[in-house]
Amino acid sequence: MNKEAVLHTPLSQYAYAVDERSLNIRIRTAKNDITACYLYYGDRVDMVEPIRVTEVQMEKNATDDLFDYYEATVADKYSRVCYYFKLEDGDKEEFYYSRGFCNNMEAHRTEYFQFPYIRREDMLDVPKWASDIVMYHIFPDSFASDKRSLSGIGQQVELNATESGEKIKSVSNLGGTLNGISENLDYIRDLGVNCIYLNPIFTASSYHKYDTIDYMSIDPCFGTMEDFKKLVSNCHENGIRVILDGVFNHCGSDFFAFRDVLAKGSESRYYDWFYDMPANVEFKDPPEYEAFAYVKEMPKLNTGNPEVIEYFCNVGKYWIEEADIDGWRLDVANEINHGFWREYRKAVRGVKKDCFLIAEIWEEAGIWLQGDQFDSTMNYTFSYLCKDFFATDKISVTEFDEQINKMFMRYSWKTDFCQMNFLDTHDVPRFLSYCGGDIEKLKLAATYMMTCVGIPSIFYGDECAIEGVTEPEYRKEMPWKYVVNDDVYKDISEDLGKAANGTDGSSINNVYDNQHVGNIEELYPYYKKLIRIRNSEVVLRRGSYKTVLTDDTGLYVFVRSLGEEKIYVVFNNSNNDKRCDLSEYVGDSAYELIRGYVTGKEFRVSAKSAMIIKEFLN
After folding, report:
1. What CATH code is assigned to 138-249+303-477?
2. Which of 219, 360, 424, 463 is the catalytic position?
């Protein structure tokens, strides 16, 4: 037995409270090293000695490239629990494991692993609605300015002049507005999503709005406070939550405090609002002060300053109180001190108890997900794995499954269920470009996103086959030309014919050739169907995940389970049709949800396709 591989850490993702009377306990072992694992638990203040323990056989629920992970649930009357493990290799070795390894468990209860007290204050407090989200991520400038249209015309709006008389401007690029989003809520609703996440909408200089000038006002290029309140109200009436983007790591160079520092240097009242400022501040490239990614227009805020903490806690509360938003996505969260986030969470949760907090952290983020800072992070690991498996065929079925399980095991399942999963965002190339324009690959990845553990997030226009590798491309305009009010794409065969004959080339948006138009017509209804399936099947939103089959010729199968209900998701990520046999798992018949027909336990899976199979319950 490989003892060096065995790992258990109390009060972590390896031991956490599910509720006030149950714990999830996890242990890691070397891959394929043991045959059975048992958990023994008892009341750590039991009145008898030795204490009474209950045996639970643990289940192997995940395997990655190096390790197996066994789990069990302790559901008892105890609020204080101690526990140890027994590991068997099926041959000659059997060990107990607590403070160390031993052949016989003779240690005192104080040497067992401890869960001192299941306190409600320390439990992960994730909003109940979070795991039911299907998110639509909107880059406001690029989405819409009117009903099914985007002007494509940027604006320049002059703001109040500075004390020195210098004029400040806000600009946009493609002319999207908040009213444009409101005018197209029917499109968003009919797609099936129930949450929108908006990139920054506060007054800022640039079109992307990550250089904030005024955190308490709507950027005039996008509209007014009344426009935003109307948008949130309309969203709520349609069962859609609203999440805003908060940029607190840095501000814009025209933020009032930074302008004061530029004018007065270390004599400024706001000098300590910024991180590591020189005594004399010059606005030049590269900046001599700390800034986001060495961009002089984005000076880094000192979020350890109590005044800065108070200011941004007030910002967080203000938009909940004024407009009733439902959550925040927090930019560059990993470059801000933990104490700031703890205070911020307390502030916004004090106004709205189920405010949902998502951190922009691209790497492993366990230290931010202990229940005192964030509920979720942007799960870039998910997007990387989908790119490598579905888009570029860089990794095999086995490697994909191993890495997905490793991803799950970073956090508790309670946290995994609300991770923000996506294929692309405003910061990376469009997934369809990684696919080389192959729509079938995108459909496979979208199917996985909609059936996997976590919150699926669609970047606006993915359902319309937007491609793009550079920033202007992947933030390009929403292709409203081909959408009509009943959400059926226009019959454009006549336009295509004219374009092909050169008689009316202007009738086709030059961004989309004939193939792209065909992709749009096919993708939108497919996304809509996937979202409908996820929304109608609670097991896909809250059920467990377990690998069923990995076949490096292309087949991959996993099962989502909740109570007696099971849904099997089958992928054929190859260029050849495959036979799949689930007779070991399902009865004589089941229902295929994508295409809508009854299927047997053995079936054919077409090349580059997926099936979602719901087992009939007796």
Report:
1. 3.20.20.80
2. 360
